[in-house]
Amino acid sequence: MKIIIWKKKAAALLAAALAVSLGGYAASYPTEALATERQLPIYCVDRGQQKICSISFDAAWGNEDTQTLINILEQYNVKTTFFVVGDWVDKYPESVKALNDAGHEIMSHSAHHDHYNSLSTEKITADLKESSDKIEAITGVRPTLIRCPYGEYDDHVVKAIRDYGMEPIQWDVDSHVIKINTEGLGVSQSLYFFLVIYVCQCKLC
Length: 205
Hints:
The chain is an alpha/beta fold. It has helices at about 10-30, 30-35, 65-75, 85-90, 95-100, 120-140, 155-165; strands spanning about 50-60, 80-85, 105-110, 145, 165-170, 175-180, 190-200.
């Protein structure tokens, strides 16, 4: 058995050489390998000096007030984005057509409102295709945006969506269940809309 005895000076020189070598390796090593940047959906869009508020609606349940909503938006010349669930499209195709005919943008809110975080990449991709196919069949326009159900996402969800060719959209202001004052509008006082507002460079809060 060989025993190597290092003198202090030699050991110090070896340590210095190793430090320089490893330092150079760390400097040249890609930062992506050291820390992976988190995947995020779009929360807002920089529009420079323009003060713009974009309004969107999620449609996953009933449609009893859809036409009233269309009328109100038309009255104020407002165009919005509706993120609709595939099951809602199946149940209310006439409402999807009415929204599209009124000039509103129809995008995806998933096929069945499942928790995307718990789905595999393959299932997310299949879900995106299913919902997009249903919307395109009525509007003639294939969705390019999706709002994830429940606003849930993680890195694998965002990557799966972008790999499919779509962009995930969140909101820049917390969503609330808003009770609309419907007096004089000819609709029930119990009218509620799940109204999601995301603000693009607007200092509203």
